[in-house]
Design brief:
The chain is of the alpha/beta class and 311 residues long. It has one domain: NADP-dependent oxidoreductase domain (TIM Barrel), CATH 3.20.20. The protein contains 13 helices and 10 strands. The strands form 2 sheets. It has an 8-stranded parallel β-sheet with strand order 9-8-7-6-5-4-3-10, with helices on one face. Helix 1 runs parallel beside helix 12, helix 2 crosses helix 3 and helix 3 runs parallel beside helix 4.
Length: 311
């Protein structure tokens, strides 16, 4: 298993995204996905307090509740790592000390655990001074409620300023970031937070690793696709890459004997600051495709050829 940067966490070769739990995957399906992931050796799940507040009838925390029930039912919390986030679910949308502590306690309760392995600030809050928000994060680490800190969706300028403030004041530092990054959505990260991550030895656990499903190969030019939660986003890449990138992914998938999704995820493993990719799925069949990435290592030439197609 790879080591997750400075955190020292020993992680499986694919992080499982909990975004679909309570949204496109009900509790029964979510348990089946989690069971299949754990049976394959998986030990690293990602979620957030806001998942899936956007679904009608939900209030947020549904994903954490399902994961927490799975831990309790399978009695496996001590063999699993959990990453979750705060900062986007009302009323905890600012990074005040009170909000950070209350949001953390709420996540701990929903997850049925006494610690969070990686706790992200889900978005920046420029209205709260660093000496308040980052000091509050440090308190959570010192109390053992949070083991490692992360930042998601920060600008490069703010991410740099935050880490510099943490270092200058002896506070627990961000060790992980989570920004969108995949083979067809590259520039924002590569020209933004990637250089900052390299400078400060931060690891990115990227969301949208498969470009909302486009890189899975399930969406094709001229083919009718089933309407899903992500189909419009995924289909939006077809005009630009449908007849250039997808055939190359198909060829590499055939060469390596895996599903196209595994090739899209394997490309990420070749990129600076990426240790493991992340994949959220709504069915066990989708998980099986993503799990194949664990055994795929693209050659430098193969990775470069894919990169050339999306420069």
């Amino acid at each position: 298993m790879p080591i997750l940067g400075r955190t020292g966490l020993d992680v499986f070769g694919l992080q499982l995204g909990g975004n679909p739990f309570g949204w496109t995957a009900d509790e029964t399906t979510s348990f089946a996905i989690l069971d299949a992931y754990a049976a394959a050796g998986g030990n690293f799940v990602d979620t957030a307090d806001m998942y899936s507040s956007w679904k009608e009838g939900n209030v947020g925390g549904e994903s954490e509740i399902i994961i927490g029930r799975w831990y309790a039912n399978r009695r496996n919390r001590d063999t699993q790592l959990i990453a979750t986030k705060m900062g986007k679910l009302p009323p905890y949308t600012t990074l005040s000390r009170e909000n950070l502590r209350a949001a953390c306690e709420a996540s701990l309760t929903r997850l049925g655990t006494d610690r969070i392995d990686i706790y992200y600030l889900h978005q920046d809050d420029q209205s709260t001074p660093w000496e308040v928000s980052l000091a509050a994060c440090d308190e959570l680490v010192r109390e053992g409620k949070v083991l490692h800190l992360g930042a998601s969706n920060f600008t490069p300028e703010r991410l740099r300023a935050a880490v510099e403030f943490q270092r200058a004041n002896g506070l627990a530092e961000f060790e992980v970031i989570q920004d969108a990054y995949n083979l067809v959505q590259r520039q924002d990260y590569e020209q933004g937070n990637m250089p900052v991550a390299q400078e400060f030895e931060l690891v990115n656990l990227p969301y949208r690793s498969l470009a909302s499903g486009f890189l899975s190969g399930h969406y094709r030019l001229g083919a009718q696709s089933t309407e899903t939660a992500h189909s419009k986003l995924a289909s939006g890449h077809l005009d630009k890459y449908g007849d250039t990138l997808l055939p190359k992914i198909d060829a590499l998938a055939a060469k390596h004997g895996v599903a196209p999704a595994a090739i899209g995820l394997a490309w990420l493993k070749t990129r600076p600051t990426i240790v493991v990719p992340l994949s959220g799925v709504s069915a066990v069949a989708q998980l099986r495709e993503s799990l194949q990435v664990v055994n795929v290592e693209l050659t430098a030439a193969e990775a470069a050829e894919l990169s050339t197609l999306t420069n």
